[in-house]
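User: Teach me something about this protein's shape.
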Amino acid sequence: MCKTDKFLYHRKLWEMKVRLLGETKVEKLRNSFVSRSRMSLWTIRAVTVLLLWSCFVHLVALGEMWGPRLFKGWPSCFSQHDLSAVAEMRSLPAKIALPPKRVYQNNGYLMVSCNGGLNQMRAAICDMVTVARYMNVTLVVPELDKTSFWNDPSEFKDIFDVDHFITSLRDEVRILKELPPRVKQRVELGMYHEMPPISWSNMSYYQNQILPLVKKHKVLHLNKTDSRLANNGLPVEVQKLRCRVNFNGLKFTPQIEELGRRVVNILREKGPFLVLHLRYEMDMLAFSGCSHGCNPEEEEELTRMRYAYPWWKEKVINSEVKRKEGLCPLTPEETALTLTALGIDRNVQLYIAAGEIYGGERRMKALTDAFPNVVRKETLLDSSDLDFCRNHSSQMAALDYLVAVESDIFVPTNDGNMARVVEGHRRFLGFKKTIQLNRKFLVKLIDEYTEGLLTWDVFSSMVKAFHSTRMGSPKRRLVIPNKPKEEDYFYANPQECLQLLDEPLRVI
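Assistant: First, the predicted structure itself:
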Protein backbone atom coordinates (compact mmCIF):
# COMPACT_ATOMS: atom_id res chain seq x y z
CA MET A 1 0.00 0.00 0.00
CA CYS A 2 1.34 3.41 -0.97
CA LYS A 3 1.79 6.18 1.49
CA THR A 4 -1.15 8.09 0.09
CA ASP A 5 -3.51 5.14 0.55
CA LYS A 6 -2.26 4.55 4.11
CA PHE A 7 -2.82 8.19 4.95
CA LEU A 8 -6.39 8.10 3.63
CA TYR A 9 -7.09 4.84 5.45
CA HIS A 10 -5.89 6.14 8.84
CA ARG A 11 -7.72 9.42 8.35
CA LYS A 12 -11.04 7.65 7.73
CA LEU A 13 -10.42 5.38 10.73
CA TRP A 14 -9.68 8.41 12.88
CA GLU A 15 -12.86 10.22 11.69
CA MET A 16 -14.96 7.13 12.46
CA LYS A 17 -13.57 6.97 16.02
CA VAL A 18 -14.19 10.67 16.56
CA ARG A 19 -17.73 10.37 15.23
CA LEU A 20 -18.42 7.30 17.40
CA LEU A 21 -16.94 8.97 20.48
CA GLY A 22 -18.94 12.12 19.80
CA GLU A 23 -22.21 10.21 19.46
CA THR A 24 -21.52 8.41 22.73
CA LYS A 25 -20.94 11.71 24.55
CA VAL A 26 -24.01 13.21 22.99
CA GLU A 27 -26.06 10.19 24.01
CA LYS A 28 -24.71 10.46 27.55
CA LEU A 29 -25.42 14.16 27.59
CA ARG A 30 -28.91 13.56 26.27
CA ASN A 31 -29.59 10.87 28.91
CA SER A 32 -28.23 13.13 31.63
CA PHE A 33 -30.48 15.97 30.49
CA VAL A 34 -33.56 13.74 30.39
CA SER A 35 -32.78 12.38 33.89
CA ARG A 36 -32.32 15.87 35.31
CA SER A 37 -35.47 17.07 33.58
CA ARG A 38 -37.49 14.26 35.12
CA MET A 39 -36.07 14.98 38.57
CA SER A 40 -36.86 18.68 38.22
CA LEU A 41 -40.39 17.84 37.06
CA TRP A 42 -41.02 15.60 40.09
CA THR A 43 -39.55 18.24 42.40
CA ILE A 44 -41.85 20.88 40.94
CA ARG A 45 -44.84 18.58 41.29
CA ALA A 46 -44.01 17.76 44.95
CA VAL A 47 -43.52 21.43 45.85
CA THR A 48 -46.78 22.32 44.10
CA VAL A 49 -48.71 19.63 45.99
CA LEU A 50 -47.26 20.79 49.32
CA LEU A 51 -48.12 24.42 48.56
CA LEU A 52 -51.68 23.50 47.55
CA TRP A 53 -52.14 21.38 50.67
CA SER A 54 -50.81 24.19 52.87
CA CYS A 55 -53.22 26.65 51.24
CA PHE A 56 -56.10 24.22 51.73
CA VAL A 57 -55.33 23.79 55.44
CA HIS A 58 -55.14 27.55 55.95
CA LEU A 59 -58.39 28.09 54.05
CA VAL A 60 -60.15 25.48 56.19
CA ALA A 61 -58.86 27.17 59.33
CA LEU A 62 -60.00 30.57 58.07
CA GLY A 63 -63.34 29.09 57.13
CA GLU A 64 -63.80 27.76 60.67
CA MET A 65 -62.96 31.18 62.11
CA TRP A 66 -64.65 33.51 59.66
CA GLY A 67 -66.98 31.36 57.64
CA PRO A 68 -70.05 31.76 59.86
CA ARG A 69 -69.57 35.55 59.80
CA LEU A 70 -68.58 36.11 56.20
CA PHE A 71 -70.74 33.56 54.45
CA LYS A 72 -73.86 33.68 56.59
CA GLY A 73 -76.84 33.63 54.27
CA TRP A 74 -74.89 32.51 51.21
CA PRO A 75 -76.35 29.55 49.30
CA SER A 76 -74.74 26.29 50.32
CA CYS A 77 -72.72 24.23 47.90
CA PHE A 78 -73.50 21.09 49.87
CA SER A 79 -76.52 18.88 49.67
CA GLN A 80 -78.38 17.84 52.79
CA HIS A 81 -76.67 14.46 52.59
CA ASP A 82 -73.25 16.14 52.48
CA LEU A 83 -74.12 18.29 55.48
CA SER A 84 -75.26 15.22 57.39
CA ALA A 85 -71.99 13.50 56.59
CA VAL A 86 -70.02 16.52 57.79
CA ALA A 87 -72.06 16.66 60.98
CA GLU A 88 -71.44 12.98 61.56
CA MET A 89 -67.69 13.47 61.08
CA ARG A 90 -67.70 16.37 63.53
CA SER A 91 -69.50 14.20 66.07
CA LEU A 92 -66.59 11.78 66.11
CA PRO A 93 -64.37 12.16 69.15
CA ALA A 94 -61.47 14.48 68.42
CA LYS A 95 -57.96 13.72 69.53
CA ILE A 96 -57.35 15.83 72.60
CA ALA A 97 -53.85 16.90 73.49
CA LEU A 98 -52.73 15.22 76.70
CA PRO A 99 -52.03 17.46 79.67
CA PRO A 100 -48.37 17.65 80.73
CA LYS A 101 -47.32 15.27 83.46
CA ARG A 102 -47.09 16.75 86.92
CA VAL A 103 -43.58 16.35 88.29
CA TYR A 104 -43.33 15.74 92.03
CA GLN A 105 -41.31 13.74 94.54
CA ASN A 106 -43.16 10.47 95.02
CA ASN A 107 -43.82 9.72 98.70
CA GLY A 108 -44.91 6.13 98.09
CA TYR A 109 -47.65 4.01 96.56
CA LEU A 110 -51.36 3.96 97.42
CA MET A 111 -53.50 0.89 96.75
CA VAL A 112 -57.25 1.12 97.32
CA SER A 113 -60.05 -1.44 97.39
CA CYS A 114 -63.48 0.05 96.76
CA ASN A 115 -66.59 -1.37 98.39
CA GLY A 116 -70.27 -1.25 97.50
CA GLY A 117 -72.16 -0.79 94.24
CA LEU A 118 -71.10 1.11 91.15
CA ASN A 119 -71.94 4.63 92.28
CA GLN A 120 -70.60 4.19 95.80
CA MET A 121 -67.34 3.04 94.21
CA ARG A 122 -67.44 5.90 91.71
CA ALA A 123 -67.54 8.50 94.49
CA ALA A 124 -64.82 6.62 96.38
CA ILE A 125 -62.53 6.63 93.34
CA CYS A 126 -62.90 10.41 93.07
CA ASP A 127 -62.00 10.76 96.75
CA MET A 128 -58.97 8.49 96.53
CA VAL A 129 -57.55 10.25 93.46
CA THR A 130 -57.86 13.53 95.37
CA VAL A 131 -56.23 12.10 98.47
CA ALA A 132 -53.36 10.65 96.41
CA ARG A 133 -52.80 13.97 94.67
CA TYR A 134 -52.47 15.96 97.89
CA MET A 135 -50.25 13.38 99.57
CA ASN A 136 -47.95 13.36 96.50
CA VAL A 137 -48.11 9.59 96.15
CA THR A 138 -48.54 7.26 93.18
CA LEU A 139 -52.01 5.72 92.92
CA VAL A 140 -52.55 2.21 91.60
CA VAL A 141 -55.75 1.81 89.56
CA PRO A 142 -58.42 1.03 92.18
CA GLU A 143 -59.66 -2.49 92.77
CA LEU A 144 -63.44 -2.89 92.57
CA ASP A 145 -65.65 -4.79 94.98
CA LYS A 146 -66.18 -8.42 93.97
CA THR A 147 -67.48 -9.83 97.26
CA SER A 148 -70.61 -7.77 97.96
CA PHE A 149 -74.19 -8.92 97.45
CA TRP A 150 -73.97 -8.45 93.67
CA ASN A 151 -70.91 -10.69 93.35
CA ASP A 152 -69.78 -8.84 90.22
CA PRO A 153 -66.33 -9.97 88.96
CA SER A 154 -65.83 -6.84 86.83
CA GLU A 155 -62.43 -5.17 86.94
CA PHE A 156 -61.89 -1.41 86.65
CA LYS A 157 -61.05 -1.77 82.96
CA ASP A 158 -64.33 -3.62 82.32
CA ILE A 159 -66.38 -0.61 83.42
CA PHE A 160 -64.19 2.48 83.01
CA ASP A 161 -61.84 3.60 80.26
CA VAL A 162 -58.64 3.00 82.19
CA ASP A 163 -56.28 4.66 79.71
CA HIS A 164 -58.37 7.82 79.69
CA PHE A 165 -58.50 7.73 83.48
CA ILE A 166 -54.70 7.66 83.71
CA THR A 167 -53.85 10.16 80.97
CA SER A 168 -56.58 12.73 81.65
CA LEU A 169 -55.42 13.14 85.26
CA ARG A 170 -51.67 12.91 84.75
CA ASP A 171 -51.21 16.64 85.35
CA GLU A 172 -52.50 16.05 88.89
CA VAL A 173 -51.34 12.62 90.00
CA ARG A 174 -49.36 9.66 88.73
CA ILE A 175 -51.61 6.60 88.24
CA LEU A 176 -50.30 3.14 87.37
CA LYS A 177 -52.17 0.04 86.21
CA GLU A 178 -50.05 -2.04 88.56
CA LEU A 179 -47.16 -1.65 90.94
CA PRO A 180 -43.59 -1.63 89.56
CA PRO A 181 -41.99 -5.13 89.74
CA ARG A 182 -39.74 -4.41 92.75
CA VAL A 183 -42.55 -2.80 94.72
CA LYS A 184 -44.90 -5.61 93.75
CA GLN A 185 -42.43 -8.11 95.21
CA ARG A 186 -42.49 -6.21 98.51
CA VAL A 187 -46.28 -6.45 98.60
CA GLU A 188 -46.18 -10.17 97.81
CA LEU A 189 -43.82 -10.59 100.76
CA GLY A 190 -46.25 -8.72 103.01
CA MET A 191 -44.06 -5.62 103.27
CA TYR A 192 -46.87 -3.04 103.22
CA HIS A 193 -49.45 -1.53 105.55
CA GLU A 194 -53.22 -2.07 105.32
CA MET A 195 -56.01 -0.16 107.06
CA PRO A 196 -59.43 1.48 106.61
CA PRO A 197 -59.32 5.27 106.79
CA ILE A 198 -61.72 7.12 109.10
CA SER A 199 -65.00 8.14 107.47
CA TRP A 200 -65.79 11.78 106.64
CA SER A 201 -62.18 12.91 107.24
CA ASN A 202 -60.67 16.21 106.14
CA MET A 203 -57.37 16.67 104.34
CA SER A 204 -55.40 17.30 107.54
CA TYR A 205 -56.18 13.71 108.60
CA TYR A 206 -54.59 12.38 105.42
CA GLN A 207 -51.64 14.77 105.64
CA ASN A 208 -50.89 14.21 109.31
CA GLN A 209 -51.86 10.58 109.91
CA ILE A 210 -51.98 8.72 106.61
CA LEU A 211 -49.02 10.27 104.78
CA PRO A 212 -46.49 9.32 107.51
CA LEU A 213 -47.65 5.71 107.15
CA VAL A 214 -47.07 5.83 103.41
CA LYS A 215 -43.57 7.21 103.89
CA LYS A 216 -42.79 4.59 106.51
CA HIS A 217 -44.10 1.51 104.68
CA LYS A 218 -43.67 2.75 101.07
CA VAL A 219 -46.94 1.00 100.16
CA LEU A 220 -50.29 1.63 101.87
CA HIS A 221 -53.47 -0.31 101.13
CA LEU A 222 -56.77 1.37 102.07
CA ASN A 223 -59.30 -1.45 102.21
CA LYS A 224 -62.41 0.72 102.76
CA THR A 225 -63.13 3.78 100.66
CA ASP A 226 -66.82 4.69 101.02
CA SER A 227 -67.42 8.21 102.40
CA ARG A 228 -63.83 8.62 103.59
CA LEU A 229 -63.65 12.30 102.66
CA ALA A 230 -65.79 15.03 104.22
CA ASN A 231 -68.63 16.76 102.38
CA ASN A 232 -67.65 20.22 103.59
CA GLY A 233 -64.79 22.17 105.14
CA LEU A 234 -62.34 21.29 102.36
CA PRO A 235 -60.38 23.76 100.20
CA VAL A 236 -62.11 24.72 96.95
CA GLU A 237 -59.28 23.24 94.85
CA VAL A 238 -59.80 19.89 96.58
CA GLN A 239 -63.54 19.94 95.83
CA LYS A 240 -62.90 20.92 92.23
CA LEU A 241 -60.50 18.02 91.76
CA ARG A 242 -63.20 15.63 93.04
CA CYS A 243 -65.49 17.08 90.37
CA ARG A 244 -62.86 16.82 87.66
CA VAL A 245 -62.33 13.13 88.36
CA ASN A 246 -66.07 12.49 88.45
CA PHE A 247 -67.13 14.41 85.37
CA ASN A 248 -64.02 14.11 83.21
CA GLY A 249 -61.63 11.43 84.46
CA LEU A 250 -64.20 8.66 84.85
CA LYS A 251 -65.56 7.68 81.45
CA PHE A 252 -67.17 4.31 80.87
CA THR A 253 -65.65 1.92 78.35
CA PRO A 254 -66.35 2.72 74.67
CA GLN A 255 -68.61 -0.35 74.48
CA ILE A 256 -70.79 0.80 77.39
CA GLU A 257 -70.81 4.42 76.16
CA GLU A 258 -71.88 3.38 72.66
CA LEU A 259 -74.68 1.17 73.98
CA GLY A 260 -75.87 3.96 76.26
CA ARG A 261 -76.01 6.38 73.33
CA ARG A 262 -78.02 3.84 71.36
CA VAL A 263 -80.60 3.48 74.12
CA VAL A 264 -80.91 7.27 74.43
CA ASN A 265 -81.33 7.62 70.66
CA ILE A 266 -84.06 4.96 70.60
CA LEU A 267 -85.92 6.80 73.34
CA ARG A 268 -85.39 10.25 71.78
CA GLU A 269 -86.86 9.10 68.45
CA LYS A 270 -90.19 8.54 70.21
CA GLY A 271 -90.19 11.76 72.24
CA PRO A 272 -89.39 12.84 75.82
CA PHE A 273 -88.57 10.22 78.43
CA LEU A 274 -88.46 10.01 82.20
CA VAL A 275 -85.99 7.77 83.99
CA LEU A 276 -87.41 6.21 87.13
CA HIS A 277 -84.82 4.79 89.51
CA LEU A 278 -87.25 2.35 91.08
CA ARG A 279 -85.08 0.90 93.82
CA TYR A 280 -87.52 -1.86 94.70
CA GLU A 281 -85.16 -4.79 94.34
CA MET A 282 -84.74 -7.74 96.67
CA ASP A 283 -81.38 -6.69 98.12
CA MET A 284 -82.61 -3.18 99.01
CA LEU A 285 -85.77 -4.49 100.69
CA ALA A 286 -83.86 -7.13 102.64
CA PHE A 287 -81.17 -4.68 103.75
CA SER A 288 -83.60 -1.91 104.74
CA GLY A 289 -86.20 -4.23 106.25
CA CYS A 290 -88.92 -2.55 104.18
CA SER A 291 -91.70 -4.99 103.30
CA HIS A 292 -94.77 -2.79 102.89
CA GLY A 293 -97.09 -4.44 100.36
CA CYS A 294 -95.30 -7.80 100.49
CA ASN A 295 -97.11 -11.02 101.35
CA PRO A 296 -96.02 -13.16 104.38
CA GLU A 297 -93.91 -15.49 102.23
CA GLU A 298 -92.01 -12.56 100.73
CA GLU A 299 -91.48 -11.00 104.15
CA GLU A 300 -89.98 -14.25 105.38
CA GLU A 301 -87.72 -14.51 102.33
CA LEU A 302 -86.44 -10.97 102.86
CA THR A 303 -85.74 -11.65 106.54
CA ARG A 304 -83.74 -14.78 105.70
CA MET A 305 -81.65 -12.83 103.24
CA ARG A 306 -80.95 -10.10 105.79
CA TYR A 307 -79.63 -12.62 108.29
CA ALA A 308 -77.55 -14.35 105.59
CA TYR A 309 -75.24 -11.33 105.22
CA PRO A 310 -73.29 -10.69 108.46
CA TRP A 311 -72.07 -7.25 107.32
CA TRP A 312 -75.70 -6.06 107.25
CA LYS A 313 -75.66 -5.07 110.91
CA GLU A 314 -79.34 -4.23 111.48
CA LYS A 315 -81.36 -7.45 111.75
CA VAL A 316 -84.58 -6.74 113.69
CA ILE A 317 -86.48 -4.04 111.81
CA ASN A 318 -90.03 -2.72 112.11
CA SER A 319 -91.00 -2.11 108.51
CA GLU A 320 -93.99 0.15 109.13
CA VAL A 321 -92.14 2.40 111.58
CA LYS A 322 -89.28 2.77 109.14
CA ARG A 323 -91.67 3.53 106.29
CA LYS A 324 -93.42 6.31 108.21
CA GLU A 325 -90.04 7.87 108.97
CA GLY A 326 -89.39 8.06 105.24
CA LEU A 327 -86.57 5.53 105.32
CA CYS A 328 -88.04 3.04 102.85
CA PRO A 329 -87.99 3.24 99.05
CA LEU A 330 -91.40 3.95 97.56
CA THR A 331 -93.27 0.89 96.36
CA PRO A 332 -94.34 0.68 92.69
CA GLU A 333 -97.92 1.42 93.80
CA GLU A 334 -96.86 4.49 95.79
CA THR A 335 -94.72 5.64 92.87
CA ALA A 336 -97.63 5.41 90.43
CA LEU A 337 -99.79 7.60 92.69
CA THR A 338 -96.98 10.12 93.19
CA LEU A 339 -96.11 10.54 89.51
CA THR A 340 -99.77 10.89 88.59
CA ALA A 341 -100.29 13.47 91.35
CA LEU A 342 -97.30 15.44 90.06
CA GLY A 343 -99.00 15.71 86.68
CA ILE A 344 -96.58 13.53 84.72
CA ASP A 345 -98.03 12.78 81.27
CA ARG A 346 -99.30 9.20 81.29
CA ASN A 347 -98.03 8.72 77.72
CA VAL A 348 -94.44 9.63 78.54
CA GLN A 349 -91.82 6.93 78.08
CA LEU A 350 -90.98 5.65 81.55
CA TYR A 351 -87.54 4.02 81.56
CA ILE A 352 -86.96 1.81 84.60
CA ALA A 353 -83.35 2.15 85.76
CA ALA A 354 -83.14 -0.79 88.14
CA GLY A 355 -82.61 -4.50 88.40
CA GLU A 356 -85.39 -7.04 88.77
CA ILE A 357 -88.36 -5.55 90.64
CA TYR A 358 -89.29 -7.68 93.65
CA GLY A 359 -92.69 -9.24 93.13
CA GLY A 360 -92.48 -8.93 89.36
CA GLU A 361 -95.50 -8.05 87.24
CA ARG A 362 -97.87 -8.31 90.21
CA ARG A 363 -96.17 -5.37 91.93
CA MET A 364 -95.61 -3.44 88.69
CA LYS A 365 -99.26 -3.60 87.58
CA ALA A 366 -100.33 -0.32 89.22
CA LEU A 367 -97.41 1.50 87.59
CA THR A 368 -97.93 0.03 84.11
CA ASP A 369 -101.67 0.73 84.29
CA ALA A 370 -100.98 4.38 85.10
CA PHE A 371 -98.11 4.71 82.59
CA PRO A 372 -98.47 2.22 79.72
CA ASN A 373 -95.15 3.16 78.04
CA VAL A 374 -92.90 1.54 80.63
CA VAL A 375 -89.63 0.37 79.07
CA ARG A 376 -86.32 -1.09 80.18
CA LYS A 377 -82.98 -1.62 78.48
CA GLU A 378 -83.94 -5.26 78.05
CA THR A 379 -87.06 -4.29 76.02
CA LEU A 380 -85.31 -1.64 73.90
CA LEU A 381 -82.28 -3.69 72.89
CA ASP A 382 -81.75 -7.11 71.38
CA SER A 383 -80.76 -9.74 73.87
CA SER A 384 -77.38 -10.15 72.17
CA ASP A 385 -76.59 -6.45 72.74
CA LEU A 386 -76.47 -7.08 76.48
CA ASP A 387 -74.48 -10.32 76.37
CA PHE A 388 -71.20 -8.64 77.30
CA CYS A 389 -72.61 -7.17 80.52
CA ARG A 390 -75.12 -9.83 81.49
CA ASN A 391 -74.61 -11.06 85.07
CA HIS A 392 -72.37 -8.02 85.66
CA SER A 393 -74.51 -5.72 87.78
CA SER A 394 -72.05 -2.82 87.76
CA GLN A 395 -71.87 -2.77 83.96
CA MET A 396 -75.67 -2.88 83.78
CA ALA A 397 -75.80 -0.03 86.31
CA ALA A 398 -73.34 1.95 84.18
CA LEU A 399 -75.73 1.68 81.24
CA ASP A 400 -78.63 2.91 83.39
CA TYR A 401 -76.43 5.74 84.67
CA LEU A 402 -75.81 7.04 81.14
CA VAL A 403 -79.51 6.97 80.28
CA ALA A 404 -80.48 8.61 83.58
CA VAL A 405 -78.04 11.48 83.10
CA GLU A 406 -79.46 12.21 79.62
CA SER A 407 -83.17 11.92 80.49
CA ASP A 408 -85.66 14.78 80.38
CA ILE A 409 -86.71 14.05 83.96
CA PHE A 410 -85.01 11.88 86.57
CA VAL A 411 -87.01 10.54 89.52
CA PRO A 412 -85.38 8.33 92.17
CA THR A 413 -87.65 6.57 94.67
CA ASN A 414 -84.98 6.47 97.37
CA ASP A 415 -81.85 8.48 98.20
CA GLY A 416 -79.19 5.84 97.57
CA ASN A 417 -75.86 6.32 95.87
CA MET A 418 -77.11 6.22 92.27
CA ALA A 419 -79.88 8.70 93.06
CA ARG A 420 -77.46 11.18 94.60
CA VAL A 421 -74.56 10.84 92.17
CA VAL A 422 -76.84 11.13 89.13
CA GLU A 423 -78.54 14.15 90.72
CA GLY A 424 -75.15 15.85 91.08
CA HIS A 425 -74.13 15.00 87.52
CA ARG A 426 -77.38 16.48 86.20
CA ARG A 427 -76.76 19.66 88.19
CA PHE A 428 -73.32 19.87 86.60
CA LEU A 429 -74.88 19.55 83.13
CA GLY A 430 -77.08 22.59 83.68
CA PHE A 431 -79.48 21.75 86.51
CA LYS A 432 -81.50 19.22 84.52
CA LYS A 433 -84.86 18.41 86.08
CA THR A 434 -84.50 15.94 88.95
CA ILE A 435 -87.51 15.44 91.21
CA GLN A 436 -86.34 14.82 94.78
CA LEU A 437 -89.23 13.01 96.43
CA ASN A 438 -89.80 13.49 100.16
CA ARG A 439 -90.85 9.99 101.17
CA LYS A 440 -91.85 10.85 104.74
CA PHE A 441 -94.26 13.48 103.47
CA LEU A 442 -95.53 11.28 100.65
CA VAL A 443 -96.35 8.10 102.60
CA LYS A 444 -98.34 10.11 105.15
CA LEU A 445 -100.30 11.79 102.36
CA ILE A 446 -100.75 8.53 100.43
CA ASP A 447 -102.15 6.78 103.52
CA GLU A 448 -104.61 9.62 104.08
CA TYR A 449 -105.70 9.48 100.44
CA THR A 450 -106.15 5.69 100.37
CA GLU A 451 -108.13 5.88 103.64
CA GLY A 452 -110.49 8.40 102.03
CA LEU A 453 -109.39 11.34 104.17
CA LEU A 454 -108.27 13.37 101.13
CA THR A 455 -109.85 13.87 97.73
CA TRP A 456 -107.71 13.35 94.65
CA ASP A 457 -107.60 17.05 93.84
CA VAL A 458 -106.42 17.96 97.34
CA PHE A 459 -103.92 15.12 97.37
CA SER A 460 -102.50 16.11 93.96
CA SER A 461 -102.28 19.82 94.77
CA MET A 462 -100.45 19.11 98.03
CA VAL A 463 -97.93 16.83 96.29
CA LYS A 464 -97.26 19.44 93.60
CA ALA A 465 -96.94 22.33 96.04
CA PHE A 466 -94.52 20.50 98.33
CA HIS A 467 -92.21 19.40 95.49
CA SER A 468 -92.26 22.64 93.50
CA THR A 469 -88.89 23.58 95.03
CA ARG A 470 -87.42 20.08 94.80
CA MET A 471 -86.73 19.89 91.07
CA GLY A 472 -82.92 20.05 90.98
CA SER A 473 -82.68 23.82 90.81
CA PRO A 474 -79.60 25.64 92.18
CA LYS A 475 -79.22 25.64 95.94
CA ARG A 476 -76.54 25.51 98.61
CA ARG A 477 -75.63 22.35 100.47
CA LEU A 478 -77.04 21.97 103.93
CA VAL A 479 -74.22 21.68 106.48
CA ILE A 480 -74.82 19.97 109.83
CA PRO A 481 -71.65 20.08 111.95
CA ASN A 482 -70.64 16.69 113.38
CA LYS A 483 -73.51 14.95 111.55
CA PRO A 484 -72.14 14.24 108.06
CA LYS A 485 -74.67 11.47 107.36
CA GLU A 486 -77.56 13.89 107.82
CA GLU A 487 -76.20 16.82 105.81
CA ASP A 488 -76.31 17.19 102.04
CA TYR A 489 -73.99 14.82 100.20
CA PHE A 490 -71.17 16.47 98.24
CA TYR A 491 -71.70 14.40 95.08
CA ALA A 492 -75.44 15.22 95.02
CA ASN A 493 -74.70 18.94 94.96
CA PRO A 494 -71.06 19.75 94.10
CA GLN A 495 -71.72 23.48 94.40
CA GLU A 496 -68.04 24.46 94.20
CA CYS A 497 -68.08 23.23 90.60
CA LEU A 498 -71.38 24.82 89.55
CA GLN A 499 -72.41 28.27 88.41
CA LEU A 500 -74.30 29.52 91.48
CA LEU A 501 -75.13 32.78 93.14
CA ASP A 502 -72.57 33.95 95.66
CA GLU A 503 -74.39 32.74 98.75
CA PRO A 504 -73.02 31.37 102.03
CA LEU A 505 -73.44 27.74 103.03
CA ARG A 506 -76.61 26.95 104.91
CA VAL A 507 -75.65 25.77 108.40
CA ILE A 508 -78.04 24.45 111.04
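Now, about its shape. Residues 250 and 419 are 18 Å apart (CA to CA). DSSP finds 19 helices and eleven strands in the chain. If you'd like, I can walk through any region in more detail.
User: That's plenty for now, thanks!
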